[in-house]
Design brief:
By secondary structure, this protein is of the alpha+beta class. It is built from four helices and six strands. The strands form two sheets. The protein has a three-stranded mixed beta sheet with strand order 1-4-3. A three-stranded antiparallel beta sheet has the order 2-6-5. The longest helix has 21 residues, at 81-101.
C-alpha cells in the first residue's frame, strides 16, 4: 500500500487574514458554503466541504493542497463568500494543472 507523507505536501497560501477579514454579518456556515462550491454532480456534500476545511486534508492534487479557510466560533465553522471564491479558484487551477500533467 502506498502512503503519502503529509509533511512533504505543499499547501497553497490564499493570502487571507482570517481574524481581520471575518465579518459575521456576511459570514456563511459551511452548510451555506456548499451552495457556492462545485462538486462532481452539483453542490458537494457537507462532509466533503468539512474535509476541504481541515488543514491536514484540504483538497489535494498530487503533493499540492489547498484548504478552505474557516473560523470556528462557539462550535460553528464560519467562512466568507470571498474565501470560498478564492478557494474555488485555487481548486480549479489545481485541477486544470493536473490535467495538463496527465499523459494523453
Amino acid at each position: 500500500m502506498n502512503t503519502i507523507n503529509l509533511s512533504l505536501m505543499r499547501t497553497i497560501d490564499l493570502g487571507i487574514n482570517l481574524q481581520a477579514e471575518l465579518d459575521l454579518a456576511h459570514a456563511l456556515t459551511l452548510i451555506d458554503a456548499t451552495k457556492l462550491l462545485r462538486g462532481r454532480r452539483g453542490a458537494p456534500a457537507y462532509n466533503t466541504v468539512m474535509r476541504w476545511a481541515r488543514p491536514n486534508q484540504g483538497y489535494s492534487v498530487g503533493m499540492v493542497r489547498v484548504v478552505l479557510p474557516t473560523v470556528l466560533l462557539n462550535g460553528v465553522r464560519w467562512t466568507m463568500p470571498a474565501w470560498v471564491r478564492a478557494f474555488e479558484q485555487a481548486r480549479t487551477e489545481l485541477g486544470v494543472n493536473a490535467d495538463r500533467r496527465r499523459p494523453s
